[in-house]
Amino acid sequence: MPRVVFLEADGRRREVDAPAGISLMEAAKQHGIIGIVARCGGACACASCHVYVDPVWFARLAPPEEMEQGMLESAWEPRATSRLGCQITLAAALDGLTVSVPRAQA
Amino acid sequence: MESAISTILIVGAGQAGSQAVDTLRRQGFGGRLVLIGDEAELPYQRPPLSKKYLSGELAQDRLLLRHRAFYEEHRTELLLGSRAIRLDRGTRSVTLANAAQLSYDRLLLCLGAHSRRLTCPGHELAGVHYLRDLADAAALRAALTPSARVVIIGGGYIGLETAATCRKQGCTVTVLEMADRVMNRVVAPDVSAYFAEDHRAQGVEIVCGTRVVGIEREQGTAGHGASHLSVACAHGVAYPADIVVVGVGAIATTDLAQHAGLACDNGITVDEHCRTSDPAIFAAGDCTNQYSPHYGRRMRLESVDNAFEQGKTAAQNLLGESHVHDRIPWFWSDQFENKLLIVGIAQGADEVVLRGDPASRSFSVCYLKDRELLAVEAINHSKDYMAGRKLIAERARLNPNKVRDPQVALKDAV
Asked: B332–A32: do the CB atoms touch at under 8 Å?
């Protein structure tokens, strides 16, 4: 079971174990991570599961598709390492994946 | 005032009710909190019911908005499978179908909406499905086989999403729509044409401008095996079907409120604070008809974001605060490989501008009134949708000639 590290906007560190196959967003919702809102439930339609991925991990993820890229451009304070949590599927290779949550979503 | 609130009842365990539990506890409410729902399931997401749940890609447990432990941690009494049948505002109590009576200091009504039903002859036959709740979706999912002939009555969001899902399963699919184009109430003609063409290219038969006059069950013959349904239309054609799915709209559920004398008009009437006509009662979600400060009029919305946000606003205000719900509504639909994203309300526009070429499979339609952007319909174009969200909220005035040019980013089309 991959472990995901969430850094909440207030600095709190949360480590959660989540089954492979679900999305980063779903793992966050299951564990009540503050700031992962995910209004649309994972349809890539709201950008409220926006996270900043640790740069080391960012490079290991499959790159975002055009729809996600377009959402991110207008998400809250996007950075080069921004991703939507609903578009990242957890897998054994992502054990240790570390992301931080933008302040605006908290 | 706040110290007088010891019990809060929430009637309706959908997205709005579940959000209200979260917000109430987060705001520090320490009293008794009861969530009453007529379905047996924990609050779940409805949008996937016509999409990834129906196709089997998403298991039931992945639909849950929050797990059971959440409600325990938030000290919430869950009364699921319980229908509230009477509201007595005089004694501030709600009676359940099992005759149990619960008193409240504050009540939140999140009653949702229900499917508009067919009334033509044969509407009650076995094999005629609706798609509103999990039980509906589970029944339809169980009935779908790749060889099934599916006739869908209604070419709106539900009808077309269901058509796409069924077609992807291999079913033979026909959509019957009364208006002259699909999704006529929610999108521009260019967008309707694009989706109709895409469905047809995928093998879905779409018939517009016709009315269903009756459904019959025909007995199987020696050569054709089992019996099937036959959906007769006003233009004289009857469509054979193993499964009929009806998606002809939803009606706000207001019985409980109406019988208690709360003001209702196409939904429970609430102000921008989610207050009903009774100061002890608030309402949120699809059941409400709410005043929108941005658009300056009342509107009843069927939208996930609206349910969440009203649930949150109502919960805050139940505790004596005075937050205003004034979100720009947004909606989405997934059909085959297309994602339709809509933000804003187009009604009242005096100019409709097509951006980009539908043949490119990525374009948008912008609605302006005196150059103010009212709404955007974006097809496989998340940039215009996201830009639209900001511009609409800011009441941005745009230059229609620049809007028409897809080379100019929408946010720069001022």
From this structure: no
Domains defined for chain B, CATH in brackets: 2-47+63-114+251-318 (3.50.50.60), 128-246 (3.50.50.60), 337-412 (3.30.390.30)
The 8-class DSSP code of residue B329 comes to P
Q: Considering the domain A3-105, what is its CATH architecture? A: Roll (3.10)
Which has the closest alpha carbon to B45: B303, B344, B326? B303
Asked if B181 contacts B191 with a C-beta cutoff of 8 angstroms, the reply is no
Q: Do B62 and A26 touch (CB under 8 A)?
A: yes
Q: Share the mean pLDDT of chain A.
A: 94
How do residues B282-339 score in pLDDT, each as one tens digit? 999 999 999 999 999 999 999 999 999 999 999 999 999 999 999 999 999 999 999 9
Chain B residues touching A70 at Cβ < 8 A: 381-383, 385-386
| pTM given for the model | 0.95
Cross-chain Cβ contact A74/B308 below 8 Å: no
Q: A95 Cβ partners below 8 Å, 6+ apart?
A: A2, A3
Q: In sequence order, what are the residues at sequence separation of 6 or more whose Cβ sits closer than 8 angstroms to the Cβ of residue A44?
A: A67, A68, A71, A84, A86, A87, B339, B382
Q: Are B39 and B349 in contact (CB under 8 A)?
A: no
- The number of helix segments (H) and strand segments (E) in chain A equals 3, 5
Token digits for A95? 């054990």
Residue B2 has pLDDT above 60, yes or no: no
Mutant choice from A40, A50, A69, A76 vs B, greatest count of B C-beta within 10 A:
A40
Q: Are strands A50-53 and A97-100 parallel, antiparallel or unpaired?
A: antiparallel
Partners of B334 on chain A (C-beta within 8 Å) are 43
Q: What is the distance between the alpha carbons of residues B153 and B155, in angstroms, rounded to a whole number? A: 7
Pick from B48, B386, B387: CB nearest A41: B48
Q: At what angle do helices B304-318 and B15-26 cross, to 10 degrees?
A: 40
Tokens of B181: 């184009």
Residue type, B239: Y
- Interface residues on A facing B, Cβ-Cβ cutoff 8 A: 22, 26, 29-30, 32, 39-41, 43-47, 66-71, 73-75
Shortest Cα distance, chain A CAs vs residue B383, angstroms: 4
Burial B182-218 (b: 16+ CB within 10 A, else e): bbbebbbeebbebbbebbeeeebebebebebeebeee
Cβ contact, residue pair A45, B339, below 8 Å: yes
* Cβ neighbours, 10 Å, residue B296: 8
